[in-house]
């Protein structure tokens, strides 16, 4: 019970935005996971790239902010992984990888 009370009153506990912000941001991860079931032609390369940059920047922020926010770091690390996977699906569907393989064979 003491551990629960300590978490409740901590600087990154459920009484703060340091907790609820990452919880809300996990919706990006869920949306990205749902999108993995859609055809790659529906992926926006620009938006996926922006999400990769966004998550990369906020991973650094989560690491540098005091107190260090591990929940936010986990959220953006998860989102970065999902978005990089989506970006790779988009690049493959657009034929970017096929072009490089053809150039290497010449």
Automatic annotation (TrEMBL):
Q: Name one GO cellular component term.
A: mitochondrial inner membrane
Which of UniProt's keywords are assigned here? Answer: Membrane, Mitochondrion, Mitochondrion inner membrane, Pyruvate, Transmembrane, Transmembrane helix, Transport
Would you say which domain of life the source belongs to?
A: Eukaryota
Where is this protein found?
Answer: Mitochondrion inner membrane
**InterPro entries with a match to the protein in the record:** MPC
One GO term (biological process): pyruvate import into mitochondria
Task: Kindly give the membrane topology term recorded for this protein.
Answer: Multi-pass membrane protein
Q: Where is this chain primarily localised?
A: mitochondrion
Main role? Mediates the uptake of pyruvate into mitochondria.
The record's similarity note reads: Belongs to the mitochondrial pyruvate carrier (MPC) (TC 2.A.105) family.
For this entry, the protein name equals Mitochondrial pyruvate carrier
As recorded in Swiss-Prot or TrEMBL, the protein's gene is named LOC105053075
């Amino acid at each position: 019970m003491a551990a629960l009370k300590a978490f409740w009153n901590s600087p990154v506990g459920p009484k703060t935005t340091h907790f609820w912000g990452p919880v809300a941001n996990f919706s990006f991860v869920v949306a990205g996971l749902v999108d993995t079931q859609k055809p790659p032609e529906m992926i926006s390369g620009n938006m996926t790239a922006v999400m990769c940059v966004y998550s990369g920047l906020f991973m650094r922020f989560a690491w540098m902010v005091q107190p260090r926010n591990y929940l936010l770091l986990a959220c953006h690390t998860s989102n970065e992984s999902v978005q990089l996977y989506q970006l790779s699906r988009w690049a493959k569907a657009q034929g970017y990888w096929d072009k490089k393989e053809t150039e290497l064979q010449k």
